[in-house]
Amino acid sequence: MSYVIRPGRLARLSPLPLFLAALAPTPATAYTPTGDHLTVTVRDAGHGADGTFEVDCHPARGTHPDPAGACAGLDRNTRWGRDTFAPVPEGSVCTMLYGGPATAHVTGTWAGRPVDARFDRSNGCETARWDRFVPLLPGMDT
Fold it and tell me: Which of 19, 25, 99, 137 sees the fewest Cβ atoms within 10 Å?
């Protein structure tokens, strides 16, 4: 007695195809406009950097001066299980080095999480946090 296993039947019986599908990278076309979308409002940055800009990532597009760079910078700063836009922790010891009057407000969605983050350059910690988000936020000559 011999058995013939048809390829379609083997695929239905084996969990391997599901496992392999889970390992495959998500194609860029799978992202929707309602995914990674941010609105960035910058004030008092000077050098023509003030304004409100839209950024969509995956694929990068929008009214931001450098959407591809902004998205790449965000991708580099994103860590699983951590809030990419978290504020400087309470009680941090920061230098009192003033980085200028620039402020920014970022809202939207990033990595499936809502974003409502405010930025300034009031001390060394806040300036370092701002600088981590360049080019989403404008680079400052300090």
Answer: 25
* Cβ neighbours of residue 56 closer than 8 Å, sequence gap 6 or more: 33, 35, 36, 37, 62, 67
Distance CA 102, CA 86 (A): 19
pTM, two decimals, is: 0.74
CA dihedral angle for residue 48, residue 54, residue 59, residue 60, rounded to 10 degrees: 10
pLDDT in tens, 50-69: 999 999 999 999 999 999 99
Phi, then psi, of 22 in degrees rounded to 5: -70, -30
Per the CB < 8 A criterion, the answer to whether 102 and 121 are in contact is: yes
